[in-house]
């Protein structure tokens, strides 16, 4: 039986209008250990905020606030 | 005239006077090209997420100014030629609400990541809320 769980967007709940690309702590929550952006079906964000998050993460990567890819040990 | 937000990274090995000089030069350039400084925020020394020009730290500065496209082009041109500037990014200014602790505090239920291939070394366990792959 499939569990139906109500999706909720953390940004909509807290009425966040813009996402700061300089906020490392917030952005790291939406990025995997490898540095990849978490898909919205996992994070629960709505489409609008996921797009904003993606832009913010890409800007933060350019400014070396968040890595493009995490270093992996071989 | 639009309000722009330019964040740039200066070489961390510069001393106090050097840093101040660079920031003052940038502000002066904006004013010379028809811009008005709204605010400047010295974020300070931060560790870089990856090495830039063999450096691991940078001095971050954020400059908010009111100007035209020409002002932005001139500022960026000066940053490109400046060896002390490691990176710059200019965007349209956005008001950011204070970071809400509620977003950071809530744990998500753990579960497996099912259905698709994923990279070794990646784990969605911390973030997956236990949904099945029900599609978008």
Quaternary structure state of the chains depicted = heterodimer
Give the percentage of residues in beta strands of chain B: 35-45%
CATH topology tier name of the domain at 2-92 in chain B: Alpha-Beta Plaits
* CATH topology group of chain A: 30s Ribosomal Protein S18
Order of helices and strands of chain A: HHHH
Number of domains of chain A: 1
Helix proportion of residues of chain A, in percent? 25-40%
Ranges of chain B with pLDDT <50 over ≥5 residues?
A: 99-118, 126-136
Full CATH superfamily name of chain A: Ribosomal protein S18
Quickly name the level 1 CATH class of the domain at 2-92 in chain B: Alpha Beta
Shape of chain B: globular
Following the backbone from N to C, one meets helices and strands of chain B in this order, namely: EHEEHEH
Return the average pLDDT of chain A rounded to an integer: 87
The class by helix and strand makeup of chain A works out as mainly alpha
In brief, what are we looking at here?
With 74 residues, chain A is mostly helical.
Structure description:
The complex is a heterodimer of chains A (74) and B (136). By secondary structure, chain A is mainly α. Chain A has one domain (10-62): Ribosomal protein S18 (30s Ribosomal Protein S18). Chain A is built from 4 helices and no strands. In chain A, 34% of the residues are buried. With 136 residues, chain B is an alpha+beta fold. Chain B has a domain at 2-92: Ribosomal protein S6/Translation elongation factor EF1B (Alpha-Beta Plaits), CATH 3.30.70.60. Chain B contains 3 helices and 4 strands, in the order βαββαβα. Chain B has a 4-stranded antiparallel beta sheet with strand order 2-3-1-4, with helices on one face. In chain B, a hairpin with a 2-residue loop joins β2 and β3. The longest helix of chain B is centred in the first third of the chain and has 17 residues, at 16-32. Residues 99-118 and 126-136 of chain B have low confidence and may be disordered. The A-B interface holds A 2-3, 5, 10-11, 13-23, 25-26, 29, 32-34, 36, 38, 41-44, 59, 61-68, 72 and B 7, 9, 43, 46, 48-50, 52, 58, 60, 62, 87, 89, 91, 94-97, 99-100, 102-104, 106, 113, 119, 121-124, 127-134, 136.
């Amino acid at each position: 039986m499939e569990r139906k769980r109500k999706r909720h967007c953390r940004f909509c709940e807290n009425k966040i209008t813009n996402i700061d690309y300089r906020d490392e702590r917030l952005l790291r929550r939406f990025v995997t250990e490898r540095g990849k952006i978490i898909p919205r079906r996992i994070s629960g964000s709505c489409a609008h905020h996921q797009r904003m998050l993606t832009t913010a993460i890409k800007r933060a990567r350019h400014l070396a606030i968040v890595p493009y890819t995490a270093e992996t040990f071989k | 005239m639009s309000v722009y937000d330019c964040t740039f990274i200066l070489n961390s090995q510069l001393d106090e006077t050097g840093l101040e000089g660079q920031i003052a030069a940038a502000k002066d350039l904006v004013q010379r090209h028809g811009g008005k400084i709204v605010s400047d925020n010295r974020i300070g020394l931060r560790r870089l997420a990856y090495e830039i020009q063999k450096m691991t730290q940078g001095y971050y500065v954020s400059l908010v100014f009111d100007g035209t496209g020409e002002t932005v082009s001139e500022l960026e041109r000066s940053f490109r030629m400046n060896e002390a500037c490691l990176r710059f990014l200019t965007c349209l200014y956005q008001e950011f609400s204070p970071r809400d602790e509620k977003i950071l505090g809530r744990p998500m239920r753990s579960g497996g990541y099912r259905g698709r291939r994923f990279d070794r070394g990646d784990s969605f366990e911390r973030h997956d809320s236990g949904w099945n792959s029900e599609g978008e």
